[in-house]
Specification:
about 525 residues; 27 strands; Nucleotidyltransferase, domain 5; eleven-stranded mixed beta sheet; alpha/beta
């Protein structure tokens, strides 16, 4: 009982709430989720698999037996979510199991002290420091920890997730647990699982001896026999049972553990209802079913570009390296500089002539010179790289872009300070619509165009609900390296300053120009 919190909770029949006692019955898959053999554990999950229950029982057990020297930090996306979990999950354990609380213990909403050890409840809501872009929170300061548990990590601010890692610097344990239902492919818990050893619950068939992962084989792993839906071996189609399963890692040598807890293995799974939903719903409801029931990261097609769509806009023209007609340029500044250069052919159609990655502003200058750029919009941060000095020295017009969530409508170009402000969500909508409505043409496929297409898929739109006000609003979230998406956005801004023309029209020769060495 000292070693295993689930055996401890099962032995004592711990009351989770009034009249509801913890039991391991029907949930053998929980056994490896405690006392993991690796310091970092990443669990993507469906509904009703008891993952959250397991983790807060583990936290209580660790304090009760003084398994850690320091605190346990239990993080949730917001303070409101923390308060809700504290009242509905932790408080009943102490209320209905008074033997756990010893003399001198503390039970407040944000701190649960048991036997001289504390579970510190934290909402991962950042604050802006001094009106700058620097984010911080006093919730994560001065809390020395041996273990950090992050519940629903996809909904957290990633800067706050990184900051919470710093609370482990003086720990000899350094335990991290990340879990939650996935949202988008390649984002949050889905990406953490993909980078882990990728364990799946493999069920051994008692008939043919082969193994089946219910979620990987879905829907073929759920079949109807005599009007009843059953879990079935995909090899011989005989009924299989969750109790005959074991966790198997695809990549056992990786440093982080990963568990995929799909809702199909839960004893609470209503297979008939699941199959009815799977066969009768679509769109946003299907996406939610895949996420919350199966633990599968997915996105509705209208909210994210795919590589096939982007590459279908290719023409026969090569990635052009010089142009005599005037062009517009969009530039995303990062560790590498991503540039998208082209022309506007009508009010809302575009020809992309060149996409390039360069290493510094000298190379960007040379590229702009060869491509005869007249207007450019460049990312104003987070990396400065001497962009403001570059803006002043170039003979064509450059605006630095600043995103604003509070400024709907047309972008505002200020020629005095060289800044353009625009609504981020609206402009990203425009880029998405341009590709979906076949209003963009790009050069023929090459290594660079393939990278362009890949990065155009690495952002997706979701609906974010403010937990305090209940108000919802759309937001584009980053799923990976999306530099070309933003350079495309900046290009559309630059192109809006130019008169539409067709390729090879209005040919001019602009004098060459020098530039300061920005190395």
């Amino acid at each position: 009982m000292y070693i295993d919190p689930l055996i401890w909770a099962n032995h004592h029949r711990i009351n989770l709430r009034s009249g509801v006692k913890f039991s391991l019955e029907g949930m053998p898959y929980l056994s490896d989720l405690v006392n993991c053999d690796k310091n970092i554990m990443n669990c993507k999950k469906g509904a009703q698999v008891c993952m959250t229950t397991t983790k807060y029982l583990e936290a209580v057990h660790a304090c009760y037996w003084k398994k850690y020297d320091q605190n346990i930090m239990y993080m949730m996306p917001t303070v409101t979510a923390v308060e809700r979990l504290s009242k509905t999950a932790f408080d009943p354990i102490f209320m209905y199991n008074p033997w756990i609380i010893k003399k001198g213990s503390t039970n407040t909403t944000m701190c649960k002290e048991i036997n001289g050890r504390s579970i510190v409840m934290v909402g991962a809501q950042p604050k802006k420091v001094g009106g700058s872009s620097v984010k911080d929170t006093d919730n994560l300061r001065s809390i020395a920890c041996d273990c950090v548990m992050r519940d629903e990590i996809d909904l957290m601010d990633m800067d706050m997730v990184y900051m919470s890692k710093q609370r482990l610097k003086r720990s000899r344990f350094n335990h991290e647990v990340n879990f939650g239902s996935p949202t988008y492919p390649g984002y949050g818990i889905d990406q953490l699982y993909e980078d882990s050893d990728q364990r799946k619950w493999q069920i051994k068939c008692t008939h043919c001896g082969k193994y089946t992962s219910l979620v990987e084989s879905f829907p073929d792993s759920i079949i109807q026999v005599n009007g009843v839906w059953i879990r079935a071996c995909v090899h011989c189609h005989k009924e299989i049972y969750v109790k005959d399963g074991t966790w198997v890692a695809d990549f056992p040598d990786r440093r982080e553990a990963g568990f995929w807890l799909d809702g199909l293995i839960s004893p609470y799974a209503d297979l008939e209802e699941y199959m009815y939903q799977y066969n009768n719903i679509e769109g946003s409801r299907m996406a939610e079913f895949m996420r919350s029931t199966l633990g599968v990261a997915t996105v509705e097609s209208e909210n994210q570009l795919d590589e096939t769509t982007v590459l279908s806009r290719c023409t026969n023209s090569m990635n052009q390296m010089a142009c005599s007609g005037e062009t517009a340029m969009g530039v995303d500044i990062g560790k590498q500089i991503h540039a998208t250069i082209g022309i506007r052919t009508s009010a809302d159609t575009y020809d992309i002539l060149n996409v390039s990655r360069v290493d510094n502003l000298n190379q960007l200058h040379d590229l702009a010179l060869k491509m005869n750029v007249k207007y450019a919009v460049i990312d104003s941060g987070p990396y400065d790289h001497g962009v403001r000095e570059f803006q002043k020295s170039e003979p064509y017009t450059i605006y630095l872009c600043q995103y604003s969530e509070q400024m709907p409508g047309k972008p505002h170009f200020n020629p005095k300070d060289g800044i353009v402000k625009c609504n981020r969500n609206e402009r990203m909508d425009l880029v998405h619509a341009a590709f979906m409505d076949n209003k963009v043409r790009i050069p023929r496929k090459s290594v660079e165009i393939a990278e362009f297409a890949r990065e155009m898929t690495k952002t997706a739109k979701t609906i974010i609900t403010n937990p305090d006000t209940g108000l919802s609003k759309p937001k584009w979230i980053k799923l990976g390296a999306d530099h070309y998406y933003h350079s495309m956005l900046y290009f559309t801004l630059a192109a809006s300053k130019m008169t539409p023309r067709q390729r090879h029209q209005n040919k001019i020769q602009r004098p060459t120009h020098a530039v300061t060495n920005w190395s």
